[in-house]
C-alpha cells in the first residue's frame, strides 16, 4: 500500500502577472525517490519554495503525512521536511560538527539563536546531540573532518555536509535542490549512492536536478514541469519515451503545450497586424 508523505493540491504561485506554478497536484509516497525536472524557468524552484514554506502559494495546499502545513519554513522543518539549496548555505566559519549540530536545533529544546550563540543551554543540548551528529557524519563519510571549518572543505564535501545538516532535523522527507550542481562525475556517483542510502533509512526524497542520467537512474517516479504546469509524470522509462518532454526541452511546440494557447494568440495578433499593414499599403 502506498502512503503519501507529501501531498501538494492545486498549488499555484503568481508573481504579479506571471504565473510561475499553475495548479500543480503532486504526491511523494513513503519510501520513494521522486525527481522533478523541467527546462530552465519551468517553476521547479518556485514549487520547492511553496513546499517548504518560503513562499505562500497564491492557491492550493501542501500537506505532510495528512496534515496541511503552515507556510512557515521552521514549522515545515519541525513537521519533518528538510531541504538543501541550489547554492550552498553552510555556516562557513563553523566546524563540520557544529554545522550538523545547528541542523538539530528543531529537534532539541534549544532554539536556533541559542545554537548560534552557543549559550549554556546549547552546550548541554550539544553534548546530548553530539552522538547523533557524529552518527550522521559517519553516514555521509565526513566523521574524520569533524573539526575542520566548513569553508575549508572541498566543494563536493560541502554539499555532503549540507545533506548531513538537513538530515540532522530527522526528516521524513528530504528535498534536494540540484544536489550534483558543480560536481565531477565521481562526486555525482557518490551522491547517487548517498541518496539511495538515505531512502533505505526510510526517508523519502524529492530532487530537482538538471543531470538527467542522475535523475533517471535514481527516481522511482519523475514529474516534468513545463511553464509552471505538470506536463508528464511516470517512471523514468515512461518520461524518457514521451515526445512532449523531448519537445519541451528542445523548445518545440507540441499538442497540449501549456503555452500553445498563448502562442496561437500571438500568431493570430501578428497575422492581423500584417493584414492591416498590407491593407494600408494597398490603399497608398
Ligand atoms: N521571486 C520571484 N519574483 C518574480 N518572478 C519570479 C520569482 N522567482 C521566480 N520567478 C519567475 O518564475 C519563473 C519560474 O522560475 P523558477 O526559478 O522557479 O524556475 P526553475 O524551473 O527553478 O528554473 P531553473 O532550472 O533555471 O532554476 C521564471 O519565469 C522566473 O523568472
TrEMBL record:
UniProt GO molecular function: ATP binding; ATP hydrolysis activity; L-isoleucine transmembrane transporter activity; L-phenylalanine transmembrane transporter activity; L-valine transmembrane transporter activity
Record key words, sorted: ATP-binding, Nucleotide-binding, Transport
Record's keyword annotation contains ATP-binding: yes
Span of domain ABC transporter: 6-252
Signal peptide from the UniProt entry: none
Xref: InterPro entries: AAA+_ATPase (IPR003593), ABC_AA/LPS_Transport (IPR051120), ABC_transporter-like_ATP-bd (IPR003439), BCA_ABC_TP_C (IPR032823), P-loop_NTPase (IPR027417)
Bias (Acidic residues) ranges: 254-268
Protein's recorded name: ABC transporter ATP-binding protein
Top-level taxonomy: Bacteria, Bacillati, Actinomycetota, Actinomycetes, Kitasatosporales
Amino acid at each position: 500500500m502506498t502512503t503519501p508523505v507529501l501531498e501538494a493540491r492545486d498549488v499555484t504561485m503568481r508573481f504579479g502577472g506571471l504565473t510561475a506554478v499553475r495548479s500543480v497536484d503532486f504526491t511523494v509516497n513513503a519510501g520513494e525517490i521522486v525527481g522533478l525536472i523541467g527546462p530552465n524557468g519551468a517553476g521547479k524552484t518556485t514549487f520547492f519554495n511553496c513546499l517548504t514554506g518560503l513562499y505562500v502559494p497564491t492557491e492550493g495546499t501542501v500537506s505532510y503525512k495528512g496534515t496541511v502545513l503552515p507556510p512557515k519554513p521552521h514549522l515545515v522543518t519541525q513537521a519533518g521536511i528538510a531541504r538543501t539549496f541550489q547554492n550552498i548555505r553552510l555556516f562557513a566559519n563553523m566546524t563540520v560538527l557544529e554545522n550538523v549540530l545547528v541542523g538539530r536545533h528543531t529537534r532539541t529544546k534549544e532554539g536556533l539563536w541559542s545554537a548560534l550563540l552557543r549559550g549554556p543551554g546549547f552546550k548541554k543540548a550539544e553534548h546530548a546531540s553530539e552522538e547523533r551528529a557524529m552518527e550522521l557524519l559517519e553516514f555521509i563519510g565526513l566523521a574524520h573532518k569533524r573539526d575542520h571549518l566548513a569553508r575549508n572543505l572541498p566543494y563536493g564535501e560541502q554539499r555532503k555536509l549540507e545533506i548531513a545538516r538537513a538530515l540532522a532535523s530527522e526528516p521524513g522527507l528530504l528535498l534536494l535542490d540540484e544536489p550534483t550542481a558543480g560536481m565531477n562525475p565521481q562526486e555525482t556517483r557518490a551522491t547517487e549512492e548517498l541518496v539511495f542510502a538515505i531512502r533505505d533509512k526510510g526517508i523519502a526524497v524529492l530532487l530537482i536536478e538538471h543531470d538527467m542520467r542522475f535523475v533517471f537512474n535514481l527516481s522511482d517516479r519523475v514529474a516534468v514541469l513545463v511553464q509552471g504546469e505538470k506536463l508528464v509524470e511516470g517512471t523514468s522509462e515512461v518520461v524518457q519515451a514521451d515526445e512532449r518532454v523531448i519537445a519541451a526541452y528542445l523548445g518545440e511546440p507540441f499538442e497540449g503545450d501549456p503555452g500553445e494557447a498563448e502562442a496561437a494568440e500571438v500568431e493570430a495578433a501578428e497575422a492581423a497586424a500584417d493584414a492591416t499593414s498590407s491593407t494600408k499599403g494597398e490603399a497608398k
